[in-house]
TrEMBL record:
UniProt subcellular location: Mitochondrion inner membrane
Family matches, as Pfam families: Cytochrome_B (PF00033)
BP terms from Gene Ontology: mitochondrial electron transport, ubiquinol to cytochrome c
Membrane topology value: Multi-pass membrane protein
Purpose: Component of the ubiquinol-cytochrome c reductase complex (complex III or cytochrome b-c1 complex) that is part of the mitochondrial respiratory chain. The b-c1 complex mediates electron transfer from ubiquinol to cytochrome c. Contributes to the generation of a proton gradient across the mitochondrial membrane that is then used for ATP synthesis.
Domain of life: Eukaryota
Name of the protein in question: Cytochrome b
Organism: Rana chensinensis
Membrane-spanning ranges: 32-53, 65-83
Keyword Transmembrane helix: yes
Length: 112
C-alpha cells in the first residue's frame, strides 16, 4: 500500500482509487488491511474483557499501561481513518473531535 499511496491532500483519494482499480490485487490488499485492523480491535476488546473478568485491574501499574496503550492504538486508528481523504474521512473525525467539546472546562479549547 505504501508504494502506491500519496499523502498529499489533493491526491490521497485518487491514489486509493488507483490502488483499488489498477494495482494487481490492490482491492484485496486494501480490504485485508481494513478488515485486519477491525479484527485487531476485536481482539483488543476481548483482551480488555478478559482482564475485567479475571480482575487484572487490581494490578494498577499493569492496568494503567494497558489503558495508555489502548489510547495510543485508538489514536493510530484515528490517523489511519483520516488518511484516504474521502467524505467519511472528513465527517468521521469531525464528529469524534466534536465529542471532545463535551469535556468540562477544556472541551471547547480542544476542539478549536
Amino acid at each position: 500500500l505504501a508504494m502506491h499511496y500519496t499523502a498529499d491532500t489533493s491526491l490521497a483519494f485518487s491514489s486509493i482509487a488507483h490502488i483499488c482499480r489498477d494495482v494487481n490485487n490492490g482491492w484485496l490488499l486494501r480490504n485485508l488491511h481494513a478488515n485486519g485492523a477491525s479484527f485487531f480491535f476485536i481482539c483488543i476488546y476481548f483482551h480488555i474483557g478478559r482482564g475485567l473478568y479475571y480482575g487484572s485491574y487490581l494490578y494498577k501499574e499493569t492496568w494503567n499501561i494497558g489503558v495508555i496503550l489502548l489510547f495510543l492504538v485508538m489514536a493510530t486508528a484515528f490517523l489511519g481513518y483520516v488518511l484516504p481523504w474521502g467524505q467519511i474521512s472528513f465527517w468521521g473525525p469531525t464528529v469524534i473531535t466534536n465529542l471532545l467539546s463535551a469535556a468540562p472546562y477544556i472541551g471547547p479549547d480542544l476542539v478549536q
